[in-house]
Write a structure and sequence with these properties.
The complex is a heterotrimer of chains A (138), B (149) and C (398).
Chain A (H helix, E strand, L loop, with lengths): L2 H6 L4 E6 L5 H8 L13 E2 L8 E5 L7 H10 L5 E5 L1 H5 L21 E3 L6 H15 L1
Parallel strand pairs in A: 1-2, 1-3, 3-4, 4-5
Chain B lengths: L2 H9 L3 E8 L2 E6 L4 H11 L3 E9 L3 E10 L4 E10 L4 E3 L9 H11 L2 E3 L33
Parallel strand pairs in B: 2-5, 6-7
Antiparallel strand pairs in B: 1-2, 3-4, 4-5
Chain C lengths: L23 E6 L2 E7 L8 H6 L6 H6 L8 H14 L5 H30 L2 H22 L8 E2 L2 E2 L8 H24 L1 H7 L7 H7 L4 H4 L7 H4 L20 H26 L16 E9 L2 E9 L7 E5 L1 H5 L3 H5 L4 H10 L10 E5 L6 E4 H18 L1
Parallel strand pairs in C: 1-8
Antiparallel strand pairs in C: 1-2, 3-4, 5-6, 6-7, 8-9
Helix pairs in contact in C: 4-5, 4-11, 4-14, 5-6, 6-11, 7-15, 14-15
The chains are: A alpha/beta (138), B alpha/beta (149), C alpha+beta (398).
């Protein structure tokens, strides 16, 4: 683990990227901001631009219309970055995996580091995954 | 007079067939050349609420159902038209119901049915480079989008 | 609530380099919006096609996942459609349970909306409070159904799970709490002169717009259109209880907010009545359905965003031949053409929020120069900033 990653550990900036989802995982991610779960006590902040992000939180199947956008966002994200696939759709395509719009799941398009399954994963599960990520970075 | 009677009176001889599933679910079959006049009567004269249009691939033919809500009666009236399989096309209803412009685009790209007079039939849900002839909701296309016979 | 923490909530990414069409492309001249284009498809997951490959009973699990926020509305409309095809009625206890789940969902969806609207206006405290109260509803869902979202409660013929008698007092207590909170939020919105100045007269939709686009739900009722599927074409237990349809007349964003908050209070009434009706009852919760004969059925449900409409056709086999799904936002979102054009860019974020589109839909919005359509001026996060700045300016006047 290089020094840069260790430095990152102090405060991770997180960017949310959707490839076409039902919104549930996205809402559960936003829920992590609310006082009950409070993602900020881990020093994490959700940011509005991929250029500032250390972590990409990916949700949804990768819809065929979204492929270029997702690759573009990944290109714009500063490296090193960690890609997290949140939810059954992002991990494997979920119930939509056989459909004609499916271009994913995410690991077909981006190098995914962490998978957090669930439909949707509860905020506790998302935070548990993030904690495992922090341990992995150690 | 019931809603069904009112509609029968207004649409008159343009009605080819009727099905009264129950008093709140009325299906009226009309010819495709009469669809504009029928839709105008239902939407404007009888003040029906535009809900949506559904297209179906019957393998031998195509079918489009235009659904209208009559909330005072709690009823849904569906206008049914049949289209030939070979070159399915029908008049667009955009000058009667402005909001129908999107579902007509969707039906065009998912079924391959043409809407003459539509202001802009172009892709809506699918990518612009979606392969022609692979109309996803036709019965000869698999769930994954490939042709099967 | 620690307001000193700086929270940057991403509601939209900014893509200066991206050239593919956005979900919403707005064209502006100076500060005014002159045109709008809607490109859908970013959330299109081939659900109608997938439905043709699933057994009738499996379809409920599929359609739940159309939208996470109104997750129960689609199974509700689907079950109504198949039950319409069959011509059956479901047990009374199941009717009340369906109403309870649907109305709890309405409250959680409207609270979510209130929070997002507050965020777009710069009332971040409102965002935190509304989402905090929402948590108690999600806890109740977890207690009754096993999941915070995607409850899998509905099946053709009734419901899958009963509500245990021992859970009812807990539900009642949470409802009492929520009643007080929603009441407070309603008064906060109605009595705030800044919100009135900010939202009244903004994004107005007339009855004619509503008719031409086929708009439904709170968007329609805020413009004075008296429609609510629960009253007009009653299903489940809605005709067995006393409740009011919430409607206002002006059609602006302020009225849309008021309609949603008033609906929460009516929902609480419906749930309380239903709980009383099922308490202590050991009745059946589902009619057994073995086969779906050939035929067609139409079912609809008043979801939090409006009418959710499903059409099914059967040929007697164990899968639907055709399943047409119409989500309420499909006819609500095009109303932007009427409500945004001619408005100031600073109001676009809140007009968009007024229609309550899917959260993901808002991620893909860009504003272009009407003179040079390739020149992107703003992304959504900047529109939210403009909206907040306008609220600040109005605040300073008071």
């Amino acid at each position: 683990m290089n020094l840069k990653m260790k430095a990152l550990k102090k405060s991770l900036w997180v960017y949310h990227l959707s490839g076409g989802s039902c919104n549930n995982c996205d809402i559960e991610i936003l829920d992590c901001l609310t006082p009950r779960f409070d993602i900020e006590r881990f020093g994490m902040v959700l940011v509005g631009s991929p250029r500032h992000a250390d972590v990409l939180l990916c949700t949804g199947i990768v819809n065929k219309k979204c492929v270029e956008r997702i690759k573009e966002v990944y290109t714009q994200t500063a490296k090193p970055c960690v890609v997290v696939a949140i939810g059954a759709c992002a991990c494997s395509g979920g119930i939509f995996k056989d459909g004609y719009q499916m271009a994913g799941p995410f690991n077909k398009i981006l190098p995914v580091d962490i998978y957090i399954p669930g439909c949707p994963p509860k905020p506790e599960a998302i935070l548990a995954g993030i904690v495992k990520l922090l341990e992995k970075l150690k | 007079m019931t809603l069904f009677d009112t509609i029968k009176e207004q649409l008159g001889c343009m009605i080819k067939d009727t099905k009264l599933h129950n008093e709140k679910r009325i299906y009226i079959t009309v010819d495709k050349q009469d669809i504009k006049e029928c839709a105008d009567i239902i939407f404007h004269r009888l003040d029906g609420r535009y809900i949506i249009a559904s297209a179906i691939d019957n393998c031998g033919s195509f079918e489009i159902l235009y659904h209208f809500g009559f909330d005072r009666y709690g009823a849904v009236v569906s206008l049914r038209v049949f289209l030939e399989r070979e070159k399915p096309e029908i008049s667009s209803l955009t000058d009667i119901i402005p909001g129908i412009v999107y579902i007509e685009r969707e039906i065009w790209e998912l079924f391959g049915i043409s809407f003459t007079g539509h202001p802009g039939l172009k892709h809506f849900l699918l990518r612009d480079d979606w392969p022609e002839e692979k109309y996803p909701l036709r019965k000869n296309i698999t769930t994954g989008g490939d042709i099967c016979e | 609530m620690n307001n000193k923490k700086k929270v940057v909530v991403p509601i939209g990414p900014y893509h200066p380099l991206l050239e593919e069409p956005e979900f919403f492309a707005l064209y502006c001249e100076g500060e005014k919006v002159v045109d709008l284009e809607w490109q859908a498809g970013y959330n299109h997951r081939a659900i109608e096609k997938l439905s043709e490959g699933k057994h009738w009973d499996q379809v409920t699990f599929l359609v739940e996942r159309i939208c996470g926020i109104c997750s129960t509305s689609h199974p509700f409309a689907y079950c109504n459609a198949v039950e319409d095809l069959l011509g059956i009625s479901i047990p009374e206890k199941a009717r009340y349970i369906r109403c309870i789940i649907a109305e709890m969902e309405r409250i959680h969806s409207h609270l979510l909306w209130t929070g997002l609207a507050g965020h777009f206006l710069g009332y971040n405290t409102l965002f935190m409070w509304a989402w905090k109260y929402r948590e108690s509803i999600l806890d109740m869902f977890e207690m009754i159904t096993g999941n915070r979202n995607h409850y899998a409660m509905f099946k053709i013929g009734g419901v899958r799970r009963d509500i245990e008698d021992e859970d009812i007092p807990v539900l009642r207590k949470v409802l009492q709490d929520i009643k007080g909170k929603v009441d407070m939020l309603t008064h906060a919105v109605l009595d705030d002169p800044v919100l009135a100045a900010r939202l009244k007269g903004v994004g107005v939709l007339t009855k004619e717009h509503i008719k031409n686009f086929g708009a439904v739900g709170p968007v329609a009722r805020a413009s004075g259109v008296d429609m609510d599927i629960r009253r007009d074409d009653p299903y489940a237990a809605y005709s067995m209880m006393d409740w009011k349809v919430s409607k206002t007349e002006n059609g602006d964003v302020f009225d849309k907010a008021v309609v949603r908050l008033l609906e929460c209070m009516e929902s609480i009434k419906i749930i309380e009545y239903s709980l009383k009706a099922i308490e202590g009852s050991k009745a059946e919760i589902a009619t057994e359905v073995r086969e779906i004969p050939p035929g067609e059925g139409i079912g609809h449900h008043e979801a939090p965003r409006g009418e959710c409409f499903h059409y099914v056709r059967s040929d007697g086999s164990n899968r639907p031949v055709r399943h047409k799904i119409k989500a309420p936002s499909y006819t609500n979102i095009p109303t932007f053409k009427a409500s945004c054009v001619g408005q100031m860019i600073a109001d676009v974020a809140i007009i968009l929020a007024g229609v309550d589109p899917c959260y993901c839909c808002t991620e893909r919005l860009a504003v272009y120069d009407a003179g040079n359509k390739k020149k992107q001026m703003y992304g959504f996060s900047e529109l939210v900033e403009m909206s907040r700045r306008k609220t600040q300016q109005i605040k300073q006047q008071f």
